[in-house]
Automatic annotation (TrEMBL):
Transmembrane segments: none annotated. Gene3D superfamilies: Luciferase-like domain (3.20.20.30). The lineage of its organism: Bacteria, Pseudomonadati, Bacteroidota, Cytophagia, Cytophagales. Residues 9-242 form the Luciferase-like domain. Keywords: Plasmid. It comes from Hymenobacter volaticus. To bacterial alkanal monooxygenase alpha and beta chains. The keyword DNA repair does not apply. This is LLM class flavin-dependent oxidoreductase. Pfam families: Bac_luciferase (PF00296). NCBIfam families: oxido_grp_1 (TIGR03558). Coiled coil: none annotated.
């Protein structure tokens, strides 16, 4: 009997009344809190041109978080590979892995993490160039390999380092790729729940053991808002709903405080879209989320759960992650989840 591993996804959200600097300090505070609570890893996303999200430079934040913690794994959730040359990613992650050995994860996504206009500003003259996600991952693997030491282009630091690569996805396309490459798979069910089950099934049924991973390994990212009572959690979650509404409508705003009712803030069609987007959410007291999480874990047979929590109050967010950790520690699995074993 064992509890499922649990981790954190952080967007360095900027709450109304705060600055990005405040958000970064809160991220470090959360990482230190999560480390004490037994969270396995702390991942940072890459987003651009969003006033409420300050995680536009995940590798920089990874160094800040890793430097302020001691044991928790720190990673990208993820680095959006169309925005970066594989060599630069290898060098940056190689630098982090050299500074913080055996603690750095590299999660990779195929989307730009922003709107098309901003993506063009990021990529410049490369914007019209076709992006080959599988090829770039293979290039990264080559740069990290000890066998690349005879190449004319080398990643220093990075070469010969054991930096686990994870494929991120929100559709079945990424499931096929992660399976074919024999890499662990992290699904973004916190905003794209529709294809979660089919993507997991595709990944597991098509998985090919690789030199880096012996068996399928699935991480699902979910929304969690936990509080001492169901009523308080429902109130806190209105911040998350307002955040998602801003994504749906394109109206950019800082992370907003909770409201008593969302009825005046959205139209019925917007509400339906937001509720669909946030379909994999666990909201309530420990007793409430324990029931729903138990069903979810049994249904998906996850190897690891990753939680993102858009909560306005930093203290309430810390408490939410504490309640989640306590809940997951109490959910015993009849069989241990597949261990993440890199060959």
């Amino acid at each position: 009997m064992s509890s499922i591993p649990y981790s954190v996804l952080d967007l360095a959200a900027v709450a109304q009344g705060n600055t990005p600097a405040d958000s970064f300090r809160n991220s470090l505070s959360l990482a230190q809190h999560a480390e004490k609570l037994g969270y396995r890893r702390f991942w940072l996303s890459e987003h651009h041109n969003m006033i409420s999200v300050a995680s536009s430079a995940p590798t920089v934040l990874m160094g800040y978080i890793a430097g302020g913690t001691t044991t928790i794994r720190v990673g990208s959730g993820g680095i959006m590979l169309p925005n970066h040359a594989p060599l630069v990613v290898a060098e940056q992650l190689g630098t982090l892995a050299s500074l913080y050995p055996n603690r750095i994860d590299l999660g990779l996504g195929r989307a730009p993490g922003t709107d098309q206009v901003t993506a063009q500003a990021i990529r410049g003259s490369r914007f019209s160039t076709a992006h080959d996600f599988p090829r770039d991952i293979q290039q990264l693997q080559t740069y990290f390999s000890a066998g690349n030491s005879t190449s004319s282009v080398r990643a220093i630091p990075g070469e010969g380092l054991d930096i686990p690569i994870y494929i991120l996805g929100s559709s079945t396309d990424s499931a096929y790729l992660a399976a074919a490459m024999g890499l662990p798979y992290a699904f973004a069910s916190h905003f794209a729940p529709g294809q979660l089950l089919s993507a997991i099934a595709i990944y597991r049924s098509n998985f090919r053991p690789s030199a880096s991973l012996a068996a399928p390994y699935v991480i699902a990212c979910v929304n969690v808002v936990a509080a001492d009572t169901d009523a308080e959690a429902e109130w806190l979650r209105t911040t998350q709903q307002q955040f998602a509404l801003g994504v749906v409508t394109g109206k950019k705003a800082l992370l907003q405080p909770p409201v008593e009712s969302m009825s005046a803030l959205w139209e019925p069609a917007e509400q339906q879209y937001v509720e669909q987007m946030l379909g994999v959410s666990f909201v309530g007291s420990k007793a409430t989320i324990q029931q729903s999480l138990t069903r979810f874990i049994k249904q998906t047979q996850l190897n690891e759960l990753m939680a993102v929590s858009h909560i306005y109050s930093h203290e309430a967010r810390l408490h939410s992650y504490q309640l989640l950790a306590e809940t997951l520690q109490e959910i015993q699995q009849p069989e241990p989840a597949n261990q993440l074993v890199f060959n």
